[in-house]
Design brief:
This protein starts with a helix and ends with a helix. By secondary structure, it is mainly alpha-helical. It is globular and about 60 Å long. The protein is built from ten helices and no strands. The longest helix has 40 residues, at 76-115.
Length: 266
């Protein structure tokens, strides 16, 4: 693994880790009843994720360009497979850290009213950071979340949408860049098609998945649903997200070939 791929591996890991632990912020918002504040804090996570995403694409694109110019294609596919694996590993780690981040976010939501500024909140949290405080909030997922897992009150369609949305988001940029190896002459066109793939996942996220989670959040706050129901749904969403990153491995080559064919038709 080259240095560039190692850096992109880390950035990909961060992106998917943040996407997974963001569920903890929703749980914290439900627990505290301060939904609007939790959404404000979610912008901080989104900022870190988008910053990582900003550097991920150009670094990987440069790596592809350099290999094409050198005529080096030996480890091309394996490099991308490693990046897809980083998404899966990040989701697993994120799932294990959800209880810890839930406690951290609960504290952050409570203290936001004191600081009334995200920069001041972050600065205050960092100034009080210590290993002892970290140990106090660290917690592992409860086995009860799995043993009591139920599909009765869950929407199977939304779970499936989340699976495919995750798979498309995971594979979109990577498949479009790998398409450059398959047809170097159309690599710029292929790379420009990644937003088309991501658009499909964005449609699923903003039309089906996010509204469903928002409605479920409101139901819990208004006592139409229980916090246990919400946690059950979060477990199912994390599970489908993990399955989506694995599905991305199967979709990778077919997606790259489809992008090449579309690039030829344009």
């Amino acid at each position: 693994m080259s240095k560039q791929i190692a850096v992109v591996f880390l950035l990909t890991f961060i992106i998917h880790l943040i996407s997974t632990v963001s569920y903890a912020l929703r749980i914290a918002g439900v627990r505290t009843g301060r939904i609007a504040v939790s959404f404000a804090l979610s912008n901080l996570l989104l900022l870190v994720s988008r910053t990582s995403n900003t550097f991920q694409g150009p670094l990987l694109a440069k790596h592809v360009e350099q290999n094409i110019m050198r005529g080096t294609f030996q480890h091309a596919e394996s490099d991308f497979r490693w990046l897809l694996l980083s998404a899966t590993l990040a989701t697993i780690v994120g799932a294990l850290l959800i209880p810890t981040f839930q406690r951290l976010f609960t504290k952050a939501i409570g203290e936001f009213g004191l600081y009334r500024s995200i920069p001041r909140l972050v600065a205050g949290g960092l100034s009080r950071f210590s290993v002892r405080r970290l140990r106090e909030v660290m917690s592992w997922p409860s086995k009860d979340n799995l043993t009591r897992l139920s599909w009765k009150k869950a929407s199977l369609n939304i779970i499936i949408y989340n699976l495919f949305a995750t798979a498309l988001l995971t594979v979109g940029v990577l498949a479009s860049l790998y398409a450059g190896y398959l047809n170097p002459e159309l690599r710029v066109t292929a790379n420009s098609l990644s937003p088309v793939v991501n658009a499909l996942s964005t449609i699923l996220l903003f039309i089906y998945i996010d509204p469903y989670l928002s409605l479920l959040t409101d139901d819990v706050v208004s006592s139409k649903a229980t916090e246990a129901d919400f946690r059950n749904m979060v477990v199912l969403f994390v599970g489908s997200r993990l399955a989506g990153t694995m599905l991305a491995q199967l979709m990778f080559l077919p997606a790259a070939n489809i992008i090449v064919r579309v690039a030829k038709l344009l």
